[in-house]
Amino acid sequence: MTCRKQNRILMFDQLTESEQNQLLDHIETCAKCETYFDQYLLLEEGLDVLLMDEAIPLSANKKKSIPAILRPALLACASMFFIFLLIWNNDSVRAVIESTINEVIVEYLIKNMEPLEPENETSKTEKITYAKFQQPEGEVISYASGKHVRTQYENGDFIIYNDKYFATYSKKDNLFLIQEQNEENPMIDMFKDINSDTISYLGEKSYANRTVEVYLVKESKDFQSEYWFDKETRMLLKVVEITNGKREENEFLKEFKVIEVEKDHKLFDFIAPEGAKIVDETIQ
């Protein structure tokens, strides 16, 4: 005979702190619920390994944890977690899974705005991403490090921006224009607010000679989008729009890699070409 509290265990992360503490007190006195809680933690840990190959920190109130030494075994026995999913196929379990996927996407998008980790603190170089695109108007090359981005166009134009300002250079007009940057990454708020029932993980694929992790968002009955994240850098490399089952794939990205440059590279400095007219709209 099962305990009525077991359904509360599946909703653990959605309970208030007071409700969690009450449930934990009950678990300490109920052998069935203690076993069930252990299984719940194992399932959640397994989902972390499957979806991210990283641990999402558990709530401070979850007094039990899975030892790190078990992680390889969890990954090797990944199929067991799908068996758990089949056994626990109910709305509460799905809510836990979908919420986890939602958090993964938001974390990836936030990671987009963080510089890559250096080899060591004393390194004289830094890692940045290099991307080459083929647009109808010509080749485009982009360098990025966190919120700092430089995009160069084949015709000689370029754009540099960070979280505060951006500068555009028009070779035709020989004009270097500096303006204030007020926009944040709008997709972060979108995924925080979106119904997690619409998000699913499609697994790993290969794109531009990179391993990517793909997530599907069902935005409406007739419209879906796939978001392709580079596994190493968490950068968003591709978005596929699907309307009434028809896929629209714009294969613009031709090359993507992580490169090392000297720390004084000045790629993201607002430096106008010699002789260009400079207009700084940030000066009041």
UniProtKB/TrEMBL annotation:
The chain crosses the membrane at residues 68-88. Keywords: Membrane, Transmembrane, Transmembrane helix. The keyword Membrane applies. This is Zinc-finger domain-containing protein. It comes from Metabacillus niabensis.
